[in-house]
Give the backbone structure.
Amino acid sequence: MSSALTAAGLGKRYGRKWALRGCTVEIPDGHVVGLVGPNGAGKSTLLNLMVGLLAPSEGSLEVLGRRPAADAEQLGRVGFLAQDAPVYGSMSIADHLRFGAHLNPRWDAGFAQERLDALDLDPKQRAGRLSGGQRAQLALTMALAKRPQLLLLDEPVAALDPLARRDFLATLTSYVAEHGISVVMSSHLLADLERVCDYLLLVSAAQVQLADEVEELLAHHRRISGPRRDLSTLPADQQVIWQSHTERQTTAVIHLEGAIHDPAWQVDELSLEDVVLAYMGGGAQAPPSRPLLGVAR
Amino acid sequence: MIEFHLDSRSGVSPYQQIVQQVRHALRLGLLEPGDQLPTVKDVVASLAINPNTVLKAYRELEHSGLAAGRPGVGTFVTATLSDAPLAAQLPLRRELERWLVKARTAGLDDESIEALFRDSFRSASARDIA
C-alpha cells in the first residue's frame, strides 16, 4: 500500500523555536486521519509543510510518494482547506466556481454544481454574505471539486454550529465513501474525530506522540484502577501512559499488548478522547463513578 | 429500510451499535430476509461517520450469516432472529425476579446488585473463554 504521508526526521524552525521536530511517521493511504494536539503543538505547521506552503528546516517529507508542491501535478493531487474556510468575500459563488475551473486542470464542474444545488445556494450570492456553515461548505466544495487524492483540513469545523458541523462532516464522509480519498483533518473536537476518523496522529510539544489506527489504539489502551501500588511492578508488556495516586487508590492509563490478568485491577475500556487526554498529560478523568461495592469477599 | 442512530455516550463502539441495531430490528421483525440495508453512502451521509465503520458492521453481519452483500447492489438481510428464544426468556426472567427479591431481602441496594451481577457475568464469561 502506498503512503499518504512519509516523514523522516522532519523539523520546522521559526527563528530559534522549533514548531515541529524529529517527526518520523508513515501513514498509509486511504485513511481519514485525525490530527490532534494542544494549541501551538505543530499541527498547522505539519499541514502547511504537507501542502508545500512551508519548507522543512530539516528532515524529509513525502506526500502521496512525492515532495510537496513539486510541480503542478502534485499541487493538483493535494487539496487544502486552511483554517476558517477562507473564501473571497466580494466574489459571487459562481465566480468562485469559474475561478476554481481556471486554476485546476482536473476540476469537476458537475460535482461542484451538484453540491451547490444540494446546499440550495444561489450562484449570484456574494461569498461574504454567506453564513459560517455555508462558507465552510463552499470552501469544501471548492477543495473537493479539484479532485484531490489527499485532502488536508485545518480545523474545518471549529467555528461551526452543531448542525453546520454535522452537515460539513457528512459531505466529507460521503465523498470519502464514494471516492476513497485520504484525509488529514486537525480538530479539537475529539467526539467528532472519534466518529469520522479511523487513524489518529497526535502532535504535542512539537513531537509526534502517537500515530496509529483508531481501532488499534482503542484495543491497546485501558484504564486500570485498584488499591494503591507501585506501577513499576507491572508486566513488561504494559506501559504506563498516565497515572494518578491517592492515599489508597492508584489509577492509570496503560498501553498493553496482551490481556490484564491481575484480578486486583478494575479494567475499563477507553474512548478515543480518554486516550488522547492521557497522552497530552491532562489525565483521563475517572470513569462515571460507580464504585464496585457489594462484591467484597 | 431502517435508519441507524448513534449514541456517543453509550461506550459501545459505533460499528457495534450498527450491528446491534440490525439485530434488534431482526428480532422485532422490522427487517426480514430479502430486505435491503441502507447503503454505506447513505449511512455515512446521515450519520457523518467513517465509511469503514459501516463496512465493518456489515462484514460482521455477513460473518454471522444475517446478511449478504451483492456487489454493486447493496447488502441484504438473509436470515431472521426468530421469536423462539423469547419463549425461553420468560421462565428465566421469573427466576431472575425471584433472585432479585432474595437479594433485596439480604440487604443489597441497586448498585450492589448491579455490581454483583456484572462481576458474576464477567467471571462466568472468563471461565467460558478459558
Observations:
- The longest strand of chain B covers residues 67-70.
- Chain B has two domains: 14-77, 84-129.
- Chain B has a mean pLDDT of 88.
